[in-house]
Amino acid sequence: MIYDYELTTGTGDTLKLSDYKGKVILVVNTATGCGFTPQYAPIEKLYKDYHEKGLEIVDIPCNQFGNQAPGTDSEIHEFCTLHYNTTFPQMKKADVNGANELPLFTYLKSQKGFESFEQHEYKELLEKMFSAADPDWAKKPDIKWNFTKFIINREGEVVARFEPTADMSKVEECIKTLL
């Protein structure tokens, strides 16, 4: 269950997801130097608009995709607050795939695997890149790129996965129905 996991914040504190029982949670892997980095703005807007109604955001920077989050935890935090005025909690940079992946992501991927990319300016580029590396890439639940989002309902169930190509209005609609 989602509440069994603990994370380390960018400042070294422990965040117990059990502290978010009864809340709607958006978990997202992020990067500061990605074509999807501007999604920090609508994610912050979600936080401002819905935090008082029960939304929590768990931002986990990840450097596994194109070395697009190369900074330290404090540098990443500074970038986000300076460029996007983020106020939601930011975790310590971590892996989301592979031998060193956070156990939280192992769980999230077991609950909601990859389905497809939505129509987006980067869709074709991403699909070509993944196909060249692994013909079976689309059948695997791995996180494909930065800004993959998981939505957890108030009962702690993973109810949705949105790839980075998903329109943020769809993410918002999902959250609104759960609040």
From TrEMBL:
<protein>
    <recommendedName>
        <fullName>Glutathione peroxidase</fullName>
    </recommendedName>
</protein>
<feature type="active site">
    <location>
        <position position="34"/>
    </location>
</feature>
<dbReference type="InterPro" id="IPR036249">
    <property type="entry name" value="Thioredoxin-like_sf"/>
</dbReference>
<dbReference type="InterPro" id="IPR000889">
    <property type="entry name" value="Glutathione_peroxidase"/>
</dbReference>
<dbReference type="GO" id="GO:0004601">
    <property type="term" value="F:peroxidase activity"/>
</dbReference>
<dbReference type="Pfam" id="PF00255">
    <property type="entry name" value="GSHPx"/>
</dbReference>
<keyword id="KW-0575">Peroxidase</keyword>
<keyword id="KW-0560">Oxidoreductase</keyword>
<dbReference type="GO" id="GO:0034599">
    <property type="term" value="P:cellular response to oxidative stress"/>
</dbReference>
<dbReference type="InterPro" id="IPR029759">
    <property type="entry name" value="GPX_AS"/>
</dbReference>
<comment type="similarity">
    <text>Belongs to the glutathione peroxidase family.</text>
</comment>
